[in-house]
């Protein structure tokens, strides 16, 4: 496939998120510009777009079944862009050259206090995107089982998180309510209502 992206220019750069102006050629052969939000620094993004370097997965999203309670693990987290709490799956950024499965184990422990037991590698999917029209942010959705007790001991200073473990019936009730919810959590919770524990087999 022809590389449609021709140039990349930094518009704004911060620790966790940057904005880039990307010059590309559309299907009519016209040169256009697109603003892209990215977790990647300029050199990494340039390498990916212009030099054919392999894409780095940015985050791990954790779909976890607590084996003792048979409940799905969710979090209710304050998100500044929404100025509100939103239901999500536990998740976090992958550090440096860390493998996504290592990041999933670390983030699950950090956000919930729970211990990852086993990853279902057949269901786990790398390279999923939530808003490809705005950002290149990619994630691995990690299907796993976990155990242990909920704890807030490992939360970072800016993480305002409540852990919520839900049975199928509790998920059904939650989905009827007018609450803010991450789209990936919504899809996973819908699937849990239909499949229960089989979702994690």
Automatic annotation (TrEMBL):
Q: What is the lineage of its organism?
A: Bacteria, Bacillati, Bacillota, Clostridia, Eubacteriales
Keyword Membrane among UniProt keywords: no
Protein name per the record: ADP-ribose pyrophosphatase
Instruction: Provide the alphabetized UniProt keywords.
Output: Hydrolase
The answer, when asked if Ligase is one of the entry's keywords, is: no
Question: Tell me, what's a Pfam family for it?
Answer: NUDIX
Matches recorded under Gene3D superfamilies: Nucleoside Triphosphate Pyrophosphohydrolase
Q: Name one GO molecular function term.
A: hydrolase activity
List the signal peptide residues. none
* One GO BP annotation of this record: nucleoside phosphate metabolic process
The Nudix hydrolase domain sits at: 55-189
Q: Which organism is it from?
A: Clostridium acidisoli DSM 12555
């Amino acid at each position: 496939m022809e590389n449609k992206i021709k140039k990349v220019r930094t518009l704004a750069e911060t620790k966790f998120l940057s904005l880039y102006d990307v010059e590309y050629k559309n299907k009519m052969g016209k040169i256009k510009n697109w603003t892209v939000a990215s977790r990647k620094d300029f050199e990494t993004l340039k390498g990916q777009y212009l030099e054919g370097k392999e894409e780095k997965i940015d985050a791990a999203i954790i779909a976890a079944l607590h084996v003792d309670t048979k409940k799905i693990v969710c979090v209710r987290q304050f998100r500044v862009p929404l100025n509100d709490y939103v239901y999500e799956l536990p998740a976090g950024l992958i550090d440096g050259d860390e493998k996504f499965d290592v990041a999933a184990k670390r983030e699950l422990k950090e956000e919930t206090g729970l211990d990852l037991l086993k990853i279902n590698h057949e269901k786990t999917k790398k390279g999923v995107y939530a808003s490809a029209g705005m950002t290149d942010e990619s994630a691995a959705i990690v299907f796993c089982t976990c155990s242990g007790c909920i704890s807030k001991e490992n939360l970072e200073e800016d993480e305002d998180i409540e852990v919520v473990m839900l049975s199928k019936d509790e998920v059904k009730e939650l989905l009827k309510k007018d609450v803010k919810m991450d789209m990936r959590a919504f899809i996973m919770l819908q699937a849990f209502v239909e499949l229960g524990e089989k979702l994690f087999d």
